[in-house]
Write a structure and sequence with these properties.
The chain has 174 residues and is of the alpha+beta class. It has 4 helices and 8 strands; from the N terminus they run E-E-E-H-H-E-E-E-H-E-H-E. A hairpin with a 2-residue loop joins strand 2 and strand 3.
Length: 174
């Protein structure tokens, strides 16, 4: 069973505070198509799947519902991952909102589905999920997105709830 969640401010312009530019040895920036190889690497490691570049090109760039709002966390100069050498500029986390088209009272509306919250194992516990969640939600609010939702997994549910999202229902798996 997965919980449907909504971020703080859902339906009110969604503008949680922005994360600091550098926090815990990482820097947030907008994701680009050049980051898709890193999305594949992180996704396959975090979720034990075998996705490819085409998956992320479609999800983030070619989605028929519109482009994603995606951010990545990159290793800051001088930072070091747990138990390893640093590689400045390396993507160590990612997060995105994917647009989804719906009808509400017969009128089209685009909502956002939080997706692909992923952090390199050596970089967990440094605020990457929280920081990227806040940045993506803020950007969505600035773009006038009225609501975002997520189907939380075991690892992300507590993070969503800590960030102020709320459970609005449950989606049963069939």
């Amino acid at each position: 069973e997965r919980a449907g969640t909504a971020p703080p401010g859902a339906g009110r312009g969604m503008s949680p505070p922005r994360a600091a530019a550098t926090e815990g040895g990482w820097i947030a920036r907008a994701a680009t198509a050049a980051d898709h190889a890193d999305h594949v690497r992180l996704f396959n490691a975090c979720f034990h799947k075998q996705k490819d570049l085409r998956t992320f090109a479609w999800k983030y760039d070619d989605n028929p519902d519109g482009p994603a709002i995606a951010r990545v966390a990159v290793e800051a100069p001088g930072a070091r991952p747990a138990g390893g050498e640093g590689v400045p500029g390396r993507v160590v986390g990612a997060y995105a909102y994917m647009p989804r088209r719906y009808l509400r009272d017969g009128q089209p509306v685009v909502l956002m589905q939080a997706s692909d919250a992923m952090t390199d194992e050596a970089w967990r516990g440094r605020g990457i999920f929280t920081g990227l969640d806040q940045l993506v939600a803020s950007t969505a609010g600035e773009q006038g997105v009225p609501l975002a939702f997520a189907y939380s997994g075991r690892q992300s549910l507590n993070g969503f709830l800590r960030n102020g999202w709320r459970i609005i229902g449950h989606a049963h798996m069939y």
